[in-house]
Amino acid sequence: KGQNGDVLMYSWSATGGDFDQPTQEATNWTAPKTTGTYTVTCTVSDQAQNSVSLAKKIPVSTSSNLSVSVAPTTGTVNSTPFTITGTGATPNGTVTAASTLPDGTQQSFTTTATSSGGFTFGPFKATEVGTYSEVYSDKTSGAVSNTVTFTVNAASGALTGGITPSNPVVGVTPVTFSGTATPNATVTLNQTAPDQTTAAYTYAANSSGNYSSTGTFIVTQLGTYSGVLHDSISGQSKTVTYSGTGDFGASVNTTSQTVTAGGSASYTVTFSSVGGFAGTVTPGAVNATVPGATTSWSPQQVTVPSNGSVNATFTIQTSASTTAGTYGNIDLYGQNGSIKRAANLVSLTVK
């Protein structure tokens, strides 16, 4: 009350910021988040509408005392624990982390500062190889910290893979696929066979970083198998290739046939193992187009035994409309994987 007993009224105003109780004798002012000088005014009036005002200029700076550091500054992917430590936040306030990952992805996290303004993120393990960049902000004051960076390196374990033995006979020798990777990593192999068919395989590295296929398998195709290995922990990728040994040959029982239009001609092709090879061979023919005629193989696929041979018969069935003449340079062959082996060229004469 005033000296004459009147009830006094208070009114607080400012050129920026907010008051929690703008009509009370005592109030709290929250400064704006922009640097500058702000005028805070208190006006006191009585019931007779007499009033007096007092103004004060208050400088506000948003320069931050928010400071962060990271330890350690380098480490290994999925292995090293990193910890972010900060000071200067609003006591018990919210601190937000803005993190940029090595691949450019951005993530954000929040935590609550202690009563003294300290805060911690972590410990945590980074899942990508490369450099991380992070900035922290105080939700209450708007203060922004310095930028911290830390670098994550690939695991030291070298990624390798291949077959044992390294020179198996195709279709005969049992092999295993094995190699090294980051300890406890999952290793994937995306493989393309010589005939361009694809397959995917998964292996588990042990605590020493070694992995191996379960049991043995047979290399079934001639040519080169190629694939890409990937280590789930280090992120490493590696191209691997392997191939088997052996081969096969092709020979034909006759190189020429003569038929009357409407008749058929057959050629017996023998596929023989070379160097112990065993496997499936698919017969084929090139330049075998004869007007009005059809062609066929019997059987359409053969299995060549190791150090043995097998026959397949190629038949040309002509018709009454087949034009008389000699049809040459007919190429009869067999294929396994990416390898083709042809017999001598054959011909057909139609009378």
Main β-sheet description: 6 strands, mixed
Strand content: over 45%
What is the radius of gyration? 42 Å
User: Mean pLDDT score, rounded?
Assistant: 93
Shape: elongated
Helix content: under 10%
- Class based on secondary structure composition and strand pairing: mainly beta
Number of helices: 0
Distance between the termini: 134 Å
Number of strands: 31
Q: Can you tell me the residue ranges where pLDDT is under 50 for at least 5 consecutive residues?
A: none
Distinctive features:
six-stranded mixed sheet, single chain, 351 residues, five-stranded mixed sheet, 31 strands, mainly beta
Topology:
Elements: E1 9-14, E2 18-19, E3 29-30, E4 36-45, E5 51-60, E6 67-71, E7 74-76, E8 81-87, E9 94-100, E10 106-112, E11 119-125, E12 130-138, E13 148-153, E14 162-164, E15 174-180, E16 186-192, E17 198-204, E18 210-212, E19 217-218, E20 224-231, E21 237-243, E22 247-252, E23 256-259, E24 264-274, E25 279-286, E26 294-298, E27 302-304, E28 309-317, E29 325-336, E30 339-342, E31 346-350
Parallel strand pairs: 7-13, 23-31
Antiparallel strand pairs: 1-4, 2-3, 4-5, 6-8, 8-11, 9-10, 9-12, 12-13, 14-15, 15-18, 15-19, 16-17, 16-20, 20-21, 22-24, 24-28, 25-27, 25-29, 26-28, 29-30, 29-31
